[in-house]
């Protein structure tokens, strides 16, 4: 049971019985200080003004209609017209007992929604660092909570599995005669990535070859697509081992990489061109 919702309903009914409009807001909130009780109804101020009454006068009339027997041990008016509600200990004990014996621990079920939670998001060809692990654990806790509440949750593990780094890696693996990428561990791959990035920054010929390889990859070249899949698989396989060790609910089916959008890009670019929203500049659209 939601105690605040119960009190709001009771106070609202009493306010209407005292002459308040049917859409009045009781404004029941948890009290900030213990001397003001467990809950406080502050709605008399706004409603009294509409009725042309003093808030305290309205509060007094509301109390004559407010029945909180078995719920509150004391109800009193404070200040200009606040209603302080002190809950009955036996009532609280009963609510706790009901919560303890309930499968939902007393948590009410909200209106079901579809919610996307984007979390973890590791880098490809690199091991996860503490920032990724933090996102992974917090994200999975949020997902589990939302599912417990009854929502339909879509897990989105958005990974950077597309772009220049793959041209660099493939070019460097070729240079090192390490084309059988499937036999490498993620730690090996991360070392290759560091070396590839260093040469990309320092060797223009290597950088040009890497950029050409990216073009071939994006064009669907069979060899480069196969190499790319191997590199991604090494990363995601190791990441899944980590997820399983942490009892995280992410799976390979939740991976939404940048490559997912690649087939959509030609149509998007064509649409932008047709609408005059895209132009060519320095050889790029």
TrEMBL record:
Gene Ontology BP annotations: arginyl-tRNA aminoacylation
Highest rank taxon of the organism: Bacteria
GO cellular component assignments: cytoplasm
Broad enzyme group: ligase
Database matches in PROSITE patterns: AA_TRNA_LIGASE_I
Family named by the database record: Belongs to the class-I aminoacyl-tRNA synthetase family.
The name this protein goes by in its record: Arginine--tRNA ligase
Transmembrane segments: none
Keyword entries, A-Z: Aminoacyl-tRNA synthetase, ATP-binding, Ligase, Nucleotide-binding, Protein biosynthesis
Annotated EC: 6.1.1.19
One GO MF term: ATP binding
Arginyl tRNA synthetase N-terminal domain segment(s): 1-87
Pfam families per record: Arg_tRNA_synt_N, tRNA-synt_1d
Coiled-coil regions listed in the entry: none
Organism: Salmonella enteritidis
């Amino acid at each position: 049971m939601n105690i605040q919702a119960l009190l709001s309903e009771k106070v609202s009914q009493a306010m209407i019985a005292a002459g308040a409009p049917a859409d009045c807001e009781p404004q029941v909130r948890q009290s900030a200080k213990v001397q003001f009780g467990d809950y406080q109804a502050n709605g008399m101020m706004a409603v009294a003004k509409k009725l042309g009454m003093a808030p305290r006068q309205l509060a007094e009339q509301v109390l004559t209609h407010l029945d909180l027997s078995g719920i509150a041990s004391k109800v009193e008016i404070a200040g200009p017209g606040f209603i302080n509600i002190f809950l009955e200990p036996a009532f609280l004990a009963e609510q706790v007992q009901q919560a303890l014996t309930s499968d939902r621990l007393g948590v009410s079920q909200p209106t079901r929604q579809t919610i996307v939670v984007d979390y973890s998001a590791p880098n490809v060809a690199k091991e996860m660092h503490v920032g990724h692990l933090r996102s992974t654990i917090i994200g999975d806790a949020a997902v589990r909570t939302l599912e417990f509440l009854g929502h339909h949750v879509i897990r989105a593990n958005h990974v950077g599995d597309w772009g220049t780094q793959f041209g660099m890696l493939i070019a460097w693996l070729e240079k090192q005669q390490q084309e059988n990428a499937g036999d490498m561990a993620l730690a090996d791959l991360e070392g290759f990535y560091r070396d590839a990035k260093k040469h990309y920054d320092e060797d223009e010929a290597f950088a040009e070859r890497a950029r050409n390889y990216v073009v071939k990859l994006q064009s669907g070249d069979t060899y480069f697509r196969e190499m790319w899949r191997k590199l991604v698989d090494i990363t995601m396989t190791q990441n899944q081992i980590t997820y399983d060790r942490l009892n995280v609910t992410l799976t390979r089916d939740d991976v939404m990489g940048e490559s997912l959008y690649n087939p959509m890009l030609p149509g998007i670019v064509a649409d932008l061109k047709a609408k005059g929203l895209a132009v060519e500049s320095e050889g790029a659209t």
